[in-house]
């Protein structure tokens, strides 16, 4: 039902081109949004990822065809090719394309993956002490770029570079007091930006879990255990993941849910700590999904998820306050955040994560 709601409210052909489909960024949509005059590269990457989830859950020709159409449309709408100036954007798309090709054989993804892998691998900056910048030419090196870049690179077989990224994140951005991952650092000045966001924790949990599987090195298991405890203490309320607002923040809690599911089903080891970590991660996903579903609105028989999964969803009455780009490059929330594609994608992401852990018997 979460999948169906996104398809009926948000998906439409790009510029009336045949065999294309892309996500309109708001519902109800403005004329400019329906014409894809505004679009958000990394939101569409998560749309691809969710479409892959659905095809993996119940494979059908229609689902597989949809992935290919969104991938193709992403490339067309981006105008300049597969890449852009933001390493976090490119990392999210690389994750989605790798999964699309590996699990569903989507051949349209191959060219994008080659271009994105090169960009991400070569962005590592040893002269600054390591890390990838947030965008080309920036002095800001942050978790939302490095975490997903590490996940993409480890899945593409670049284990050494992915491990360098994980070690850099742990050394540079882990808050020694709370155990959480901070947003980022300016280099070479060393000035740290200290906000903590749910998706920063999610990508580090995902990266460390994948490295634990690929390398067998115990430090990755230890980091998952420590960070999972910090997430449970600081990023959840009553066992439910905290909301991140609308706009770009609408995806934050869904991303954490995705990578908690990765911990639940992939974390290796049978020691008490690892068994407990898998159970904890699964429980957080299940509790969040239960809350989000209980607090949804039914609109014409399909769910509309709330911006905060613990509170009843609000029906957007129009397009007021539609998300716009700030000077810093992020996207603001609509006046009623439930209007934003990001918020609804988070709900779909969460439901797919809950299916994953339930299907695994967790």
Structure write-up:
- This protein is mostly helical.
- It has one domain: Alpha/alpha barrel (Glycosyltransferase), CATH 1.50.10.20.
- It is built from 13 helices and 9 strands.
- It has helices at residues 2-10, 31-34, 41-57, 61-77, 87-104, 109-122, 143-155, 159-173, 198-215, 218-234, 252-266, 272-294, 341-359, and strands spanning 11-12, 22-23, 140-142, 184-186, 192-193, 236-237, 240-241, 297-299, 302-304.
- Strands 3-4-5 form a 3-stranded antiparallel beta sheet.
- Helix 3 (41-57) packs parallel to helix 13 (341-359) and helix 9 (198-215) packs parallel to helix 11.
- The chain is globular and about 50 Å long.
Structural class: mainly alpha
Would you tell me the overall average pLDDT?
A: 95
> How do the strands line up in the largest sheet?
3-4-5
Q: For this entry, what is the oligomeric state of its chains? A: single chain
Under the CATH scheme, which architecture would be assigned? Alpha/alpha barrel
Task: Please report the total strand number as a whole number.
Answer: 9
The amount of beta strand, in percent, is 5-15%
CATH topology: Glycosyltransferase
Counting structural domains, the number is: 1
H and E order: HEEHHHHHEHHEEHHEEHHEEH
Distance N terminus to C terminus?
22 Å
**Low-confidence segments, ≥5 residues, pLDDT <50?**
none
Radius of gyration: 19 Å
Task: Report helical residue fraction.
Answer: 40-55%
The CATH class, by name, is: Mainly Alpha
For the report, how would you describe the main beta sheet? Answer: 3 strands, antiparallel
């Amino acid at each position: 039902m979460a999948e169906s709601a996104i398809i009926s409210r948000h998906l439409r052909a790009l510029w009336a081109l045949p065999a294309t489909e892309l996500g309109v960024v708001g519902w109800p949509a403005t004329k400019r949004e329906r014409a894809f005059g505004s679009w958000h590269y990394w939101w569409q990457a998560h749309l691809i990822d969710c479409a892959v989830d659905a095809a993996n859950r119940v494979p059908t020709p229609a689902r597989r065809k949809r992935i290919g159409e969104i991938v193709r449309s992403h490339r067309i709408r981006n105008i300049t090719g597969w890449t852009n100036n933001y390493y976090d954007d490119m990392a999210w798309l690389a994750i989605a394309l790798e999964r699309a090709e590996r699990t569903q054989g989507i051949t349209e993804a191959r060219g994008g993956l080659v271009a994105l892998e090169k960009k991400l691998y070569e962005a590592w900056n040893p002269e600054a002490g390591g890390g990838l910048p947030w965008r080309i030419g920036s002095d800001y090196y942050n978790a939302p770029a490095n975490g997903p870049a590490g996940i993409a690179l480890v899945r593409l077989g670049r284990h050494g570079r992915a491990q360098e990224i994980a070690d850099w994140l742990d050394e540079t951005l882990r808050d020694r007091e709370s155990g959480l991952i901070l947003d980022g650092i300016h280099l070479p000045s060393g000035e740290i930006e200290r906000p903590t966001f749910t998706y920063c924790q999610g990508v580090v949990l995902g990266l460390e879990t994948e490295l634990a599987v690929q390398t067998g090195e115990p430090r990755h298991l230890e980091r998952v255990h420590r960070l999972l405890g910090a997430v449970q203490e600081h990023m959840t309320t009553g066992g439910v993941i905290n909301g991140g607002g609308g706009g770009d923040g609408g995806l934050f809690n869904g991303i954490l849910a995705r990578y908690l599911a990765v911990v639940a089903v992939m974390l290796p080891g049978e020691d008490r700590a690892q068994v407990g970590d898998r159970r904890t991660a699964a429980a957080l996903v299940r509790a969040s999904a239960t809350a989000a579903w209980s607090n949804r609105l039914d609109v014409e028989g399909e769910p509309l998820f709330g911006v905060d999964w613990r509170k009843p969803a609000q029906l957007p009455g129009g397009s007021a306050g539609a998300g716009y780009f700030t000077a810093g490059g992020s996207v603001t929330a609509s006046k009623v955040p439930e209007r934003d594609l990001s918020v609804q994608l988070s709900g779909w992401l969460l439901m797919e994560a809950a299916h994953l852990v339930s299907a695994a018997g967790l």
